[in-house]
Amino acid sequence: MIGPMMEVHAEARRQALLLESERGRRIVEVERGQRRSVRSSIGGRIVRLGAWIAGEH
How far is CA 15 from each of CA 1, 3, 5, 18, 19, rounded to the nearest angstrom? Predict the structure, then answer.
């Protein structure tokens, strides 16, 4: 079971690398954007709440 599963995983990884090489920087930018949005979502809510309290919505 381990052998075939490893082969499937390796093939999926090859396809992912192929897509990355085709799209190139777009994937990197999207990944960075997602990470930033996850990190800044909490901070962004605090800022929005502060702006709403200040009456700047």
Answer: 22, 19, 15, 5, 6
Q: How many other CB atoms sit within 10 Å of the CB of residue 47? A: 11
First to last CA, the chain: 57
Distance CA(4)–CA(9), nearest Å, equals 9
The pTM (predicted TM-score) of the whole model is 0.30
Query: Which amino acid type is present at position 13?
Result: R
The residue ranges of every structural domain in the chain are 2-54
- Spatial separation of the C-alpha atoms in residues 27 and 21, rounded to whole Å: 9
When pLDDT is cut at 50, 70 and 90, the band that residue 44 belongs to is confident
Instruction: Give the tokens for residue 14.
Output: 């090859």
